[in-house]
Amino acid sequence: MADEEKKAPEKEKPAPALATGLIRDAAKWLIGAFAAIAALLLTGVQLSSVGQLSLDEGRLIAAIAGFGLGLGATLYVIVQNVRVLLPQTTTVSGLEADEDLAKYFADNPELLPGPGETVAAFAERYRDAGSAYEAALTADEQGSSDATKEALKKAKARLAKTEREVREVLAVANWKSTEGLFVDVRRKVIAAAVLAAVGIGLFAWAANPPEDPDPPARAVISPAPVVAELRVKPASRAMLREALGEKCLLSNVQVLEVGGTKEKPEVVTIPQQNCQSARLVVSEDIGIVTAAPLTVVP
Questions:
Q1: pLDDT tens sequence across 218-275
Q2: Residues in contact with 193: Cβ distance below 8 Å, sequence separation at least 6, in sequence order
Q3: Which of 13, 40, 90, 224 has a 20 to 30 Å separation from 252 between CA atoms?
Q4: Per-residue model confidence as pLDDT tens digits over 206-220
Q5: Residue 155's closest CA among 183, 135, 180?
Q6: Is residue 239 within 8 Å of 80, Cβ to Cβ?
Q7: pTM score, two decimals?
Q8: Separation between Cα atoms, residue 114 and residue 172, nearest integer Å
Q9: Nearest to residue 30, comparing CAs of 243, 162, 267, 188?
């Protein structure tokens, strides 16, 4: 009783299929997440203003570089995680050659079926069981007897038991291989995620330039009116009498030049005796506008 109480509790053996499934579920989640990021990036191209950028602008080059970096890093993460989903197949000879797996089983000897057994001893026992079965089968075929049949039965049972143990051990080895691959992929995913974030940020900045600010409002200052004289040509006097009055002296009308151009000044006639106020644009056909002092006729 005392000896049983002093025994150290055995480590709980891992469930390789469950552990491998959890790792692959994490890889599937990462694939889905980064696939959504890629879809958002492709949608962002359509919603951005990248089509309005010209080749002469540095923002267009930055947008193309950012888009390529973000999409490339995202696809790299997806491809790396797809590797985790692929089945890992480990053989007995591969188990022997893999130093990491050999060390793991050396650190956890309870995962091997034989007490204190090493990976090399386990592999050798498996090969011996196979050889013993082949020898017993050959002996029975050459000369069948009760002894050969009993030996074949025992060799077959031994081989079947060893093969079950091999399947259990290789399931653990496949789980550790998947776990090691996921750890390696995780490092690459972190680096690629940083690059994807930089690329997406660069694309978002370059593809959405700020709107040009409105120019500051300026006061509209019109030129000051200038006192001038309008000399209407005889051919146009009849037309202007309706606006200025029948008795207005059109040979010399006092006006204020308020705008227009040198060839076609815009004037306002100054109301005086027999002349009404009117606004008109004076062309060469109508008359000539010349600067003159203001003279008010009583």
A1: 655 556 777 778 788 887 777 777 777 777 877 778 887 878 788 888 888 888 777 8
A2: 73, 77
A3: 224
A4: 777 777 666 565 655
A5: 135
A6: no
A7: 0.54
A8: 15
A9: 188
